[in-house]
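If you are new to this repository, start here. Below is one unmodified record pulled from the training split, so you can see the exact layout before writing a loader.
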Amino acid sequence: MKITFLGTGTSQGVPVIACKCEVCLSKNLKDKRLRSSILIELQNKTIVIDTGPDFRQQMLRENVEKLDAVLYTHSHKDHVAGLDDIRSFNFRSRKPMDIFCTKDVLNALKMEYSYIFSEKTYPGVPKVNVNIIENTKFFVDDIGIQPIQALHYKLPVLGFRIKNFIYLTDLSEINSVEKSKMLNADVIVLDSLRKEPHLSHLSLDESIALLKELKPKQAYLIHISHLMGLHDDVNSELPTNIQLSFDGLQLKKLYFIYICNNLIFEKNYLL
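And here is the target side for that same chain:
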């Protein structure tokens, strides 16, 4: 499995338009964040979670030439605004794009993109093959995917577990049943908006507390606001197995270090 972080920012992205804070003015490329999305390559399949407003730019940057499926976490604009640009993949593959979403997300997509779902279409309109999912395991071909349900304030959202990799963004609350689906993970990618509490997102302290409970080997924080602070400064304050993600970060083979009887051991594991 290969994971590419297409974008790691919150709904406004970083830098924020017209903002002059030190994060928005930073020259460090790790402080430049497109809207959150992730690319998964596994078993000769290429899957994207969420197509935000920066989807086209992200596909071009990563030179993605093949896309087999799109999974949607929820219907907010920063997660669905790039759907129209799947038309390029329709043209290359000569077939509709498989999209996986809940009924509520589909209803929102139909309102936002009525021309895609209309009975009367025209040449060049994106073509989709809709797969309705609920909070039960589903498959993209032979790849098993376990949804994880959480609340984004009052809005139900889905995260996804693929093997021992978990992606869960945009949440403020998750119950014990859903947490149990996140145990024994190699990698968890988790929402963390800023240091201060927020109505609909986890704060940095809340994200760290949840990760300490779940105990993944490695965790990366995502959906990051400019209010979080400078990437390098925040990273230096985090536990070694929890780090801020950044745009373009790729995970292939990961390593973790543990100490026993004053001896340092390094172990590698594949996603």
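Two things worth knowing about this chain: Residues 119 and 125 are 12 Å apart (CA to CA). The mean pLDDT is 94.
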